[in-house]
Design a protein that fits this description.
With 182 residues, the protein is an all-alpha fold. Helix content is 68%, strand content 2%. The chain has 2 domains: 1-30; 31-176. The protein contains 8 helices and 2 strands; from the N terminus they run E-E-H-H-H-H-H-H-H-H. The chain has a two-stranded antiparallel ribbon with strand order 1-2. Helix 1 packs antiparallel against helix 4.
Length: 182
C-alpha cells in the first residue's frame, strides 16, 4: 500500500491515481507524453511568430520605397493592409502561445479553453487574411481544416488522457473548456 501525497489515503501499490481524490502518482505528475510534444511544438511556433512579425515590420518599413515603383499599386493594391493585418495577427498569436505555455507549466485549469480559443481564432483569421493577402482560397481552406483537425484531436486527447489529468491535478480544466469529450 502507498499513501497519496495529496490526501494521504492508502492506495494499492500498482495504482496510477488515488481512489479518493484522483491525484496522480509520481510517474504522471511530470510533463510528458503527448503533452510534452504539444508544449515543444508551442515553443517552436513562437520562433515562427517572431519571423512573421519581423517580415511584417520589414514590409511596413519598405512600403514607401515600394509604393513609388511603377505598377506597384496595381499589382499589390492591399500591400499596406496585408502587412498591418499580418503584424497584428502574429503579435496576437505570439502572446496567446506564450500565455498557453505559462498556463500549462503552472497547471492552470483554463489552458484547454485558451487552446480552443486560439484554434477558433485561427479559423477566423484565415478567411480575413484571404481578403488582404495573395493566398489562394484552397490554401485558406486547407489551413482552416488543419486548425479544425488540431482543435478536435487535441481536445479529445486533453479530455481523455489520464496523464494530462494527473499532471493538471484534477479535471477542472475539462469543466472550463468550451468543447468537451467524455
Amino acid at each position: 500500500m502507498k499513501p497519496c501525497t495529496n490526501c494521504e489515503r492508502q492506495n494499492a501499490d500498482d495504482a496510477i491515481f488515488c481512489d479518493a481524490c484522483g491525484h496522480g502518482f509520481d510517474k504522471y505528475n511530470r510533463l510528458g507524453g503527448w503533452l510534452l510534444v504539444f508544449v515543444i511544438f508551442l515553443i517552436c511556433s513562437i520562433g515562427l511568430y517572431f519571423y512573421i512579425i519581423n517580415s511584417a515590420v520589414t514590409r511596413l518599413a519598405n512600403y514607401h520605397s515600394f509604393s513609388t515603383m511603377p505598377g506597384f499599386a496595381d499589382f499589390y493594391p492591399n500591400y499596406f493592409s496585408w502587412a498591418i493585418v499580418s503584424l497584428v495577427s502574429a503579435i496576437t498569436f505570439l502572446a496567446l502561445h506564450i500565455w498557453l505555455i505559462i498556463k500549462i507549466f503552472r497547471r492552470r485549469a483554463g489552458f484547454l479553453r485558451l487552446y480552443q480559443i486560439m484554434r477558433l481564432l485561427g479559423m477566423i483569421e484565415y478567411p480575413i487574411m484571404l481578403l488582404f493577402s495573395y493566398t489562394t482560397p484552397g490554401a485558406t481552406i486547407r489551413r482552416t481544416l488543419f486548425d479544425l483537425l488540431g482543435l478536435i484531436l487535441f481536445t479529445i486527447y486533453f479530455c481523455l488522457s489520464k496523464r494530462v489529468r494527473a499532471y493538471m491535478g484534477s479535471d477542472a480544466y475539462i469543466k472550463k473548456a468550451w468543447i468537451k469529450f467524455r
